[in-house]
Amino acid sequence: MNRPLNYVVLFCFFVCLLSCHTNKKVSDKENSLSSISENLTKKGFKKAVIIKNKGESNCALLVSLTDSKEMLDPIGIDQNNFTNEEKIWLKFTSLRMKNRCKEARPVNVIEIKKRDD
Fold first, then answer.
1. Beta-carbon contacts of residue 9 (< 8 Å; ≥ 6 apart)
2. Does a structural domain hold residue 40?
3. Region for residue 76 given its phi and psi (left: phi exceeds 0; alpha: psi -120 to 50; beta: otherwise)
4. Residue 4 falls inside a structural domain
């Protein structure tokens, strides 16, 4: 009687052991996008979206930071190089000058990279 009980306990132990293992794997694309994102963030880039302003403001091109929803006025960028709602990585510094438009603050763009996500 003791021997069948041992088999049952041993069987339950193996079932529990095998059921705790997960087979979830992260795809290479997700892994590569997260490593690119992490790498660019370490280098000082921020996720942003280009917004073409159609109002009567002096700012024809605005940039919205994705994380903080802050609006930026990039100085010295050709607006013809970008489409509306284009996702970018932006590296910038603040400028100490009078605002050209009241909804955004002026920034000097150091570097822009297109985002794939």
1. none
2. no
3. left
4. no
Q: What is the 3-state secondary structure (H, E, C) of the chain?
A: CHHHHHHHHHHHHHHHHHHCCCCCCCCHHHHHHHHHHHHHHHCCCEEEEEEECCCCCCCCEEEEECCCCCEEEEECCCHHHCCCCCEEEEEEEECCCCCCCCCCEEEEEEEEEECCC
Give the CATH number for residue 78: 2.40.50
Mean pLDDT of the chain: 81
Distance in angstroms (rounded) separating the CA atoms of residues 62 and 76: 12
pLDDT digits (tens, 9 = 90+) for 26-71: 455 556 767 888 888 899 999 999 988 776 667 788 999 998 889 9
Number of domains comprising the chain: 1
The percent of residues in the chain predicted with pLDDT above 70, rounded, is 78
Q: Which two tokens stand for residue 67?
A: 């994380």
Residue 67 forms part of a structural domain: yes
Task: Identify the domain containing residue 116 by its residue range.
Answer: 45-117
